[in-house]
Automatic annotation (TrEMBL):
Species assigned in the record: Candidatus Cryptobacteroides avistercoris
Domain of life: Bacteria
InterPro entries on file: UCP033563 (IPR008323)
Protein name per the record: DUF1015 domain-containing protein
A Pfam family of this chain: DUF1015
Length: 413
């Protein structure tokens, strides 16, 4: 079973929340963040390179120093204020008329080490190192990770009771997504939440934030090694997460764009594709995949339907059945020579929230040669793979809406 606890969050005053709250650090590039960030935006803490002109690399030591300076400044100015006692929080997000309700809490690093916090993707060491530096220098989890858990009726009831009250925060972001936030400060409710997780929730599943989770665990291990009086209850053993019941979450497509056709012209490429796919030209109007093993491709101003031929995939294999695996095996590797999705610079990835027009635009601009849209995986596939200890290919899942950063911060002391 998982261990959780409440925490006394640093949070913006209600009247400042829309000025402080910001998208996660990894969904905006530096130029986009600089254009978006107002005076009080958390982006000055999570992407402090935007405070330099000309802009510095986000790995520059001066940028890390600026992050610490800004975090202290936000607290000193009262833009982030600590709650008077440890609490749990409820965070609701609404997109396209669908609302998901998460519990904001602290999870234990030992559960990551033991496998009770289950992952479905590999991490990159360089990205882990970057997030670890931010946690270490700030002595805080500035942004939460995004977990799911198997539905639990009692937790659902507790959350519903909290959400029946007036929210502490309620606003709509620049994408039109709704965000509401409640504080659970009742001692009996707090004790019950801790008890239900400890007794009835066997695992968390990392939905989004594999690098932040790994970084938090590494910082916890580092601080443990430095503390001869370590007990396992110190605040550095815990890190901030927002945890949603599995049934409320939806995964959307995570698509691919490629810079070249590995020396082939379009006609040759289409001919080679027909060896493993039924290829149908759909014309200039955008085409979205209709189901598992059907792909959308954009090439030279036209959309194509690609349907994998029988025998080209293994539906009995939890990894082999995934369309990211089918595309990687039959197209990216076999035809285009892209063997490592995590390091090859010829490929890039586009979250489905940006729409098919983003794929066409990157090809039409000349930056990319071909684009592929995939049918999204299901939550059931994700949890089955995580439970089995297997790993999905890189860039398989895209969750939306993204957690807004700045609604709560967890400090490690």
């Amino acid at each position: 079973m998982v261990r959780v606890k409440p925490f006394a969050a640093l949070r913006p005053p209600r009247e400042l929340v829309t000025e402080v709250a910001a998208p996660p650090y990894d969904v905006l590039n530096s130029a986009e963040a600089k254009a978006m960030a107002g005076e009080k935006s958390l982006l000055h803490i999570t992407k402090p390179e935007i405070d330099f002109d000309p802009m510095l690399s986000d790995h520059d030591p001066k940028v890390y120093e600026k992050a610490v300076e800004n975090f202290r400044s936000w607290q000193r100015r009262g833009w982030l204020v600590r709650d008077p006692k440890p609490c749990y929080y409820v965070y609701a997000q609404t997109m396209d008329g669908r609302t998901q309700y998460g519990i904001v809490l602290c999870a234990h690093t030992d559960d990551y080490a033991s496998g009770a916090i289950k992952k479905h993707e590999l991490t990159r060491r360089d990205k882990e190192d970057d997030r670890m530096i931010h946690v270490r220098i700030q002595n805080a989890n500035i942004e939460p990770v995004f977990f799911s858990y198997k539905d639990n009726p009692e937790l659902t009831e507790i959350v519903a009771t909290a959400a029946a009250g007036t929210p502490e925060y309620s606003f709509t972001d620049e994408n039109g997504f709704g965000h509401r936030f409640w504080v659970i400060d009742d001692d009996a409710a707090i004790a019950r939440i801790s008890s239900v997780f400890k007794g009835e929730v066997p695992a968390f599943y990392v939905a989004d934030g594999h690098h932040r989770t790994a970084a938090a665990a590494r910082v916890g291990a580092e601080k443990r090694a430095q503390n001869p009086r370590h007990t396992g209850e110190e605040e550095y053993n815990w890190f901030m997460a927002v945890c949603f019941p599995e049934s409320q979450l939806r995964i959307i497509d995570y698509n691919r764009v490629v810079r070249d056709l590995a020396g082939m012209d379009a006609e040759t490429f289409l001919s080679r594709l027909s060896e493993d796919f039924e290829v149908e030209c759909m014309g200039a109007e955008a085409y979205r995949p209709s189901g598992l093993h059907n792909f959308s491709m954009y090439l030279e101003g036209r959309w194509y339907s690609l349907t994998a031929r029988p025998g080209r995939y293994d539906d009995s294999d939890p990894i082999g059945v995934l369309d990211v695996t089918v595309l990687s095996s039959l197209v990216l590797d076999k035809l285009l020579g892209i063997k490592d999705l995590r390091t090859d610079k010829r490929i890039d990835f586009v979250g489905g929230i940006r729409g098919l027009s983003e794929l066409a635009g990157r090809v039409d601009s000349g930056e990319m040669k071909v684009a592929f849209a995939l049918y999204p995986v299901s939550m059931g596939q994700l949890t089955d793979i995580a439970d089995s200890g297997m790993i999905m290919p890189p860039k398989t899942t895209w969750f939306e809406p993204k957690l807004r950063s700045g609604l709560a911060v967890h400090t490690l002391d």
